[in-house]
Amino acid sequence: RYYNPQWGRYLSPDPLPSLQPFAYAKNNPVKFVDPSGLFWDYVADGVGLGYDIYVIKTEGASFGNVATLAFDVVLAAARSFPASAASRLSGKLLPMAMRSSNSGKLPLMAMRSSKVRKKLPQEGEGMR
C-alpha cells in the first residue's frame, strides 16, 4: 500500500479491511508497518502449523499426520502460491490419502478444502 504523507491518506485500499483500519499496526501506521497488509495470513499459518505439531505429538507420527505437516510447511513457505491451486492439489491428494491405512485426518481436510474452493470465486474473477 502506498501512503501520501501530505494528504495523510493511503492511496490504495486495504486488502483486509475491518472496523479498525489501523489495527494491524497498533493504530500507528507510521511507526509499525505491514507492507502487504496481510499479517493475518501469517498468524493463520502459525496456528495451522502448531495444530499439526500438536496432532503429531498426541496421535503419533503417522504418514498422514507427517504429510499434512509437510504440506502446510510448503504452503506457508510459498507465499505466492495461490490458495485455489493449493485447494486443487489437496483435492488430488485425497485418493492417495484414502488408500493409506494410517492417513490420519488428511482425507477429511482435503474434502473440506475442496468444498470451500467450490464456494470461492475463481482466480482473478472480479478484478479490473
Description:
The chain is mainly alpha-helical and 128 residues long. It has a domain at 39-119. The protein has four helices and two strands, in the order ββαααα. A two-stranded antiparallel sheet has the order 1-2. A hairpin with a 4-residue loop joins β1 (3-4) and β2. The longest helix is centred in the middle third of the chain and has 21 residues, at 39-59. The chain is elongated.
Chart the SSEs and their pairings.
Blueprint: E1 3-4, E2 9-10, H1 39-59, H2 63-77, H3 83-99, H4 106-119
Antiparallel strand pairs: 1-2
Helix pairs in contact: 1-2, 3-4
Task: Identify the notable features of this structure and list them briefly.
128 residues; mainly alpha; two-stranded antiparallel ribbon; 2 strands; disordered C terminus
Low-confidence stretches: 123-128
User: How much of the polypeptide forms β-strand, as a percent range?
Assistant: under 5%
What general form does the structure show? elongated
Q: What would you report as the Rg, rounded to the nearest angstrom?
A: 19 Å
List the strand order in the largest sheet. 1-2
Mean pLDDT: 69
| Cα-to-Cα separation, first versus last residue | 17 Å
Q: Which structural category do the helix and sheet elements fall into?
A: mainly alpha
Measured as a percent range, the helix fraction is 40-55%
- Put simply, the count of helices is 4
Q: What quaternary form is this?
A: single chain
Order of helices and strands: EEHHHH
Instruction: Count every beta strand, where a strand is a DSSP E run of 2 or more residues.
Output: 2
State the major sheet. 2 strands, antiparallel
